[in-house]
């Protein structure tokens, strides 16, 4: 017998199937294997497809326009003056990732739900999979379930999770008389890991020990951040255009103010946008008809949401995939049409902007003085404390790592411990336990900053914290790459251990100076970028009634330019953005005491992880007893290098290191070479640095 069903309205005349007890716990949500059949029937799915089609029909024109504007900004940035104080550190070419983490857990799943043992794997791209047994994973079997971690929140308190479940259905609070204790988590769970999502099934896991819970917490939090900030980390014109288009689309729907809806891939973002639009009607029309009470009803609600989310995500993905060829063709065409006329377009843009600035100056200045100026100093100072503390923690860890290398070189110039130290140093940006010190600093001001920003409609604190954490990780990766590159240039086999250590200490000083320079630049970019995110939507909403009506008189001038890269609304926003940036820069000068804190407009956002013309791979000359030439060819190293760090044979067996590192991770030192593959098992794993001993 199937579960009990009841027909209730879904939205706008459609019907939703409400599933009663018996369909299973929210932990069963997955993309493959073992997933319950959808509680939505064919008619309801057709309705959702119609909603997705309507969203795409309204969104894609915004996206096309922002693609043109983004290409214009990129070309003007390429041709314009560069920042006088550019980055000093080399750019790491390693893409952000999380260390693969795997191990046994128990999961609440099944029909009826119960705690069952599983083997869980967090992939390097942040995707979570779970298998029935470890052997199933090792033999390449099909997983029981998998999920992208985008949008999830991790809870490690059972009491907090139960409060969250109760809040989902507040009208039935306290009515738990019909509930079964085992299925509703009334039995205490010692080391829980609850993954909660606003539109998806909850995933309920439990670890065997506190240490295992802590390790999984760090790994899952890293995966959530990695998958959430994929668009924010990108500097590609299409990614920036997409985020701007989402903001404009939502403004046209009357939603001003940034929030966390833009976390995730493009399809996930559009899915979240539509789910938020539909949620009030869905909740009002389906929640009263859900069977059960209290937490049983809450679980049924998450199951229904999961089914709706899955159908919307599939439709959004299909729509964006269908748009991809048009987007590629449009970007190529825009490049050809905009680049030859970029100077003329920018002059025309400046003329219209000057006239617009004159027309809206009064209302704009009044709004800024009345609403923004009183709060701006506190917002800037709190943003500064957030990023400053995080980057200071990065500097401390970096200095300690470089000191450990010098110390180990003096102690053991050709030993396994030195090799491990080098490997650990290269892994520092991806060591979640180590970097947690920096990441916690980014979290400390969340409450205070949230209180300051909330009156301006800013609800994107998770995105802001993720941005600070990504910045800390990026600067650490850049500093590590720079240290290794400079060390490669100054070390030779003619040096004894003390001499080599002294040179490393000089490199340490240079890297710290470069880090301090880049850290200051990054702080200013962070404050300017997030200051705009907090204040710009609010100011636009305040000026909407009075200033937007002035825009039609400029339409003729803009249309006469004959370029889709320029729109009246875009120039209007640029004018307001420029005035806000002036205010933020003035406050930065007061706060930092700097003579010049100017950055390019596009420099407000984070620097990309991978850029054209980034630093080359490390020229580490590695000498193996066997296969040296093959390895040198693999690294594309020159025949002769200024550095000769010789790797000699170690008495350790290969299995010593293979048992410690994952299959898809570098086995040891070679991971430090920028841009290398993450699968290096073909390289000998029993080599260490070797310098001449210091004469006694």
Automatic annotation (TrEMBL):
Gene3D superfamilies: Pleckstrin-homology domain (PH domain)/Phosphotyrosine-binding domain (PTB) (2.30.29.30). CDD domains: Niban-like (cd23949). InterPro entries: Niban-like, Niban_1/2/3_dom, PH-like_dom_sf, PH_domain. It comes from the Eukaryota. Residues 1-48 are annotated as: Disordered. Residues 99-227 form the PH domain. Residues 21-32 have a biased composition (Gly residues). Pfam families: Niban2, PH_Niban2. PANTHER family: NIBAN FAMILY MEMBER, PROTEIN NIBAN 3. Belongs to the Niban family. This is FAM129C isoform 1.
